[in-house]
Amino acid sequence: MKQEEITYLLQNPAAVTLDQTAALQEVLQQYPYFQAARAVRLKGLKNANSLHYNKALKITAAYTTDRGVLFDLITSDEFNQNQIAEQIRKHEQQEKEFSEETPEP
Q: Distance from first CA to last CA of the chain, Å, rounded?
């Protein structure tokens, strides 16, 4: 699998095909700690209703540092990590503004 194809799949995980999941498996044999490739492969297996999905889910969860992000990727039709990060920043900013507005007793 070429670097450009991997980059495209990382940017568009919902577009992964069953053939690409097989190619990602080959990449993972060479780079077993490539978390993003594991997650995209898992998304492809889920989209294809593959019998290998449950086993791959367990393995991917073991290699993943943030299972919340993995859950969002798997369950959402469109996943954009930048949008999620922006929402978190806005929420943190709102909390900060609220704490600054609240007078201390």
A: 61
Model-level pTM? 0.68
CB 70 within 8 A of CB 56: no
Using CA atoms, how far apart are residues 93 and 87, in angstroms rounded to an integer? 10
Per-residue pLDDT of the chain (105 residues; tens, 9 = 90+): 888 998 888 888 888 898 999 999 999 999 999 998 999 999 999 989 999 999 999 999 999 888 888 888 888 766 555 565 566 677 778 877 877 766 666
Q: What is the C-alpha to C-alpha distance for residues 15 and 32, in angstroms, rounded to an integer?
A: 22
Spell out the domain ranges in the chain: 3-79
For residue 83, count other CB atoms closer than 10 A to its CB.
Answer: 10
Pairs from 49-54 (Cβ < 8 Å, separation ≥ 24):
50/18, 50/21
Please tell me the number of Cα atoms within 13 Å of 35 on its side-chain side: 10
